[in-house]
Design brief:
- The structure is a single chain.
- With 563 residues, this protein is of the alpha/beta class.
- Helix content is 23%, strand content 31%.
- The chain has seven helices and 39 strands.
- The strands form seven sheets. The protein has a 14-stranded mixed beta sheet with strand order 13-17-16-9-19-21-23-25-27-29-32-34-36-37, with no helix packed on it. Strands 18, 20, 22, 24, 26, 28, 30, 31, 33, 35, 38 and 39 form a twelve-stranded mixed beta sheet that branches. A four-stranded antiparallel beta sheet has the order 6-10-15-14, with no helix packed on it.
- Helix 6 runs antiparallel to helix 7.
């Protein structure tokens, strides 16, 4: 090459070199201007925007005499950079291998460019962490630090918050198990399908559940929580609801369900309902199970043999009563009849009304009204008893009654003997007799203690008060026992004395027979006993306390047939 050519080349007159030099100068100036936006010692207010402005300088090389751009590839630092993702994809760490690093390549611009070449979500990348890495690089370059590997967290995802399933808690059963009897038989009647409930009783609590909150991983992909269970409760009639928000955790909401009235609870896993009166659409038996209800019951069929029914108010039966396992807090009304095979006692707090009563033992606190007949039964009644039918009769039965009695017939020609015990309070009589037994037991206990108390008194007198502590304690215990037994004994005597008079009705009582009383009929009033030897028709008898002689029979028809 001539001197002239060399000079021409050096002074930039060569067109190719002149173009290349000019372009390079402009690009360097642009790069210097943009790089000034990133200060490694200062955290940028908007690291992402500032880093975007710090674009790397493009290079071009002239090949031959014609300028051609070199095929684009990343800076030499790229192979030394890598990203580590935690297994949960919620954190990303930028790693730089510094061994043999060309520190001129370790610029904020190159690191920024590398981060943007990854699949990390740019909205989650913490670009200000680039300054942190550059600061460590400068310390290594200056010899202040020696770190072969630099690792800086540059991305943070958000964790998913799982939801909380809802639930329902019931405070009354709606599914009962079958009870197995001693003979290994299943008694399906013990399935108490009807549950009584009182006003304001809590029925159930519903927890609505808490919906989970979605998260986002470092790639920007959503992390969705699993759907929560949302139980539903269908609300029927007579149900109060109250929403309760937890003061400690306001996102937790509960709904309390309670009864708005006394009634029967019908419930399942999905619904609740309270009915004020229990109505059985058919018979009470295997299909319904036993019934215990705090209220009134209407049975549109019969109560089958072996069934148990208890209620606090009235019991209305459209057909027959065939079971004796019955307790009624109000009236018992049987539109057909009471026909039993069992010997259990039916207990009624109110009145009894039926077409007939057969093979029954009944305790009634009120009155008994029967349209047809009472057969082979024993009735304890604290009110009055009336058989209303024109052919009504009491046959082969025993009636213990506190008030009066009216019937068409007593007994019949077939020899069905009848006993009527008037003015008699069977419950007080039972208490009186029980007290008599208790008094006898109390007397025996006191008699056994008397000799011990006497020996104690003699010992105290002889010892003149010089008694060791053990004996004092024993004597004290003996004396206290003796005193308690005497107090109880006196109370028993007082109660028995009260019952002496309350066992009998103090008022005047009437017995009325509108048809006939047949031989085999016995009528009792206190100590009076009247046995019918010959049929007596249409008569009335009046009884009252202090009556010296048996009550006379007074005809209640125009023709008396008293014998």
């Amino acid at each position: 090459m001539s001197e002239t050519d060399k000079t021409s080349k050096d002074d930039g007159t060569n067109p190719v070199n002149k173009f290349t030099a000019g372009l390079t100068s402009k690009m360097q100036a642009l790069g210097t201007q943009k790089m000034s936006a990133i200060d490694p010692d200062k955290k940028p207010t908007n690291p992402k925007t500032e880093a975007v402005e710090a674009l790397p300088t493009q290079r071009m090389q002239a090949v031959g005499g014609t300028p051609k751009p070199k095929r684009e590839k990343g800076p030499d630092i790229f192979p030394r950079l890598s990203v580590r993702i935690t297994p949960d994809n919620l954190k990303a760490f930028l790693i730089l291998d510094t061994l043999g690093l060309d520190f001129s390549q370790a610029t904020a611009t190159n690191i920024y460019t590398y981060l943007n070449s990854t699949k990390l979500d740019t909205d989650l990348v913490q670009y200000n962490k680039i300054n942190e890495m550059v600061a460590i690089i400068k310390k290594i370059q200056s010899g202040e630090a020696q770190e072969p590997i630099i690792e800086v967290q540059v991305c943070q995802g958000s964790a998913m918050v799982p939801g909380i399933d809802g639930w329902v808690k019931f405070y009354f059963p709606h599914n009962q198990r079958v009870v197995i009897t001693d003979d290994d038989k299943a008694d399906f009647r013990n399935l108490e399908r009807y549950v009584t409930i009182k006003q304001n009783d809590k029925i159930a609590t519903l927890f609505l559940g808490v919906v989970g909150k979605p998260g986002k991983d470092v790639y920007g992909a959503p992390i969705n929580p699993s759907p929560i269970k949302r139980p539903k409760v269908v609300i029927g009639s007579n149900i109060n609801t109250e929403q309760i928000v937890s003061p400690e955790e306001p996102e937790k909401v509960y709904i309390e369900y309670s009864a708005a009235t006394n009634g029967v609870l019908y419930s399942s896993d999905e619904s609740i309902n309270v009915s004020e009166q229990l109505t059985i659409r058919g018979n009470v038996g295997l299909s319904t199970g036993n019934i215990n209800y705090n209220g009134a019951i209407t049975v549109e069929g019969s109560i089958e043999e072996g069934s148990k029914v208890t209620c606090t108010e009235s019991l209305l039966i459209a057909e027959n009563l065939e079971s004796s396992d019955i307790e009624v807090g109000g009236d018992l009304i049987v539109k057909a009849g009471i026909k039993l095979k069992q010997s259990k006692t039916i207990k009624i707090k109110g009145n009894v009304k039926a077409k007939f009563i057969e093979n029954a033992v009944i305790e009634v606190d009120g009155d008994v009204i029967v349209e047809g007949f009472i057969l082979n039964s024993k009735i304890f009644c604290l009110g009055s008893l009336v058989v209303t039918g024109a052919t009504g009769a009491i046959l082969g039965s025993e009636i213990i009654i506190y008030g009066g009695l009216s019937t068409t017939n007593l007994g019949n020609n077939s020899g069905n003997d009848v006993t009527i015990d008037l003015g008699y309070h069977y419950r007080n009589e039972k208490l009186y007799n029980d007290l008599g037994q208790a008094i006898k037991t109390s007397e025996k206990e006191i008699e056994q203690l008397v000799p011990q108390v006497q020996r104690m008194n003699n010992f105290i007198k002889q010892s003149r008060g010089k008694i060791d502590e053990d004996k004092k304690a024993k004597f004290k215990e003996l004396f206290e026992t003796y005193q308690k037994k005497n107090i109880i004994h006196k109370k028993l005597l007082l109660k028995q004395e009260e019952l002496k008079t309350t066992r009998f009705n103090p008022d005047k009582i009437h017995l009325m027979v509108k048809g006939a009383a047949f031989p085999g009929t016995t009528i009792k009033y206190r100590r009076q006993i009247e046995k019918i030897q010959v049929m007596q028709t249409a008569f009335m008898m009046a009884f009252f306390p202090g009556q010296e002689n048996n009550a006379p029979m007074t005809a209640i028809s125009s023709v008396s047939k008293k014998k």
